[in-house]
Amino acid sequence: MPETREIKTHGHSVPVRVDPEPEREGRPALWPTVGEYPIYDEFLYSTMTTDHERSERFLAALAELAPGRRVLDIGTGEDLLWARESVKAGAEHAVAVEVIEGAFDKAADTLTALDRRDRITLLRGESTTLRFAPRAEICVAEIIGSMAGAEGAAAVLADARASHLVPRGRVVPHRAVTLAAAVRLADLLPGQPVAFAEASLPYLESVFDWNGGPFDIRLRVENPHTDALLCDGRPVEVLDFNGELRTEQRTTTRLDITRASHVDGVLTWLNLWCLPGEEPLDALRTKTNWASIYFPLFDRPLPVAPGDVLELSVETALSDDGIHPDYHLAGTLHTTDGHQHHGSLASPHHAGPFKAHPAYQALFPTA
Ligand SMILES: C[S@@+](CC[C@H](N)C(=O)[O-])C[C@H]1O[C@@H](n2cnc3c(N)ncnc32)[C@H](O)[C@@H]1O
Hints:
alpha+beta, Rossmann fold, 2 domains, 7-stranded antiparallel sheet, binds S-adenosylmethionine
């Protein structure tokens, strides 16, 4: 049974629907998204450093690209991770950049204790405002979200290519794509309440505090029940970090429903290539810290049958910080009996409305 808890933000109490059942390995869990906000802590950094699938791919790319080269690690985090690994792989030098003060301080402590510390320069600040020379030959940046571009990878890496990399410099990762499929939220969490995991509440509070109040934060679904997908996944956001990198884009795609059920929104998830030509990391089917993001579209679950089509458009536009994208989704369900149903969702990075959609009204009940 879900319970209602109160979190405090900016002097206000916000009731939140919570699943009191403790999280277990493999059990679905609903969290707010956290990666696109400056609220990282030791726990979040450790979920990334212990992500073997992720590490394997980044390390393979660095083994191929770093030897003898100057590397720039954007968003090095408190562990100075990819800067250290680049030097270990034979990089001539690495510049590591981190914007969060606490993480930078810990990275500075880590650096002091390293043998090869003269081969790493650590800088505090945003890569988009820092300027340094000489230019790097390789840029490694794990600023990829569960919705691939949500952490600002397009704007940050477009700037890195223009300002920090030599003309033929290479970026790791190589490519990120967000896929989407039609779903009903309740089916992603079978036998469980549609409610936030209890452990996620401090993060919800931190993001709301950072934002200056509550808003309809994106919904992160960990270990979603994949049988809930009503169609194949289709790309809705494409980021080619070594090619034509668009900071804003709009895609329209057709989701062909393959079985009878209900739909109320879409689930999105990441496919990531660190090197060209490799099999992508598929976040939906891999044990990784990247989860999937559910976006509500319709006010209530609508019945669907094979042959129905959800026409989905996803627009990515930079928010007023010029880095993090706002997403806007619109869907039209075309049923085989000739009916059409429209639904949409504005999902800004910050400063958006609160409880604008029934899915959020259920998650944040009125006291
Ligand atoms: C997802 S974490 C990755 C941390 C570490 N590199 C790893 O892979 O485990 C992203 C980090 O990048 C930092 N960050 C994001 N954009 C940045 C930017 N433009 N300049 C500097 N740091 C940035 C965040 O503060 C955060 O510490």
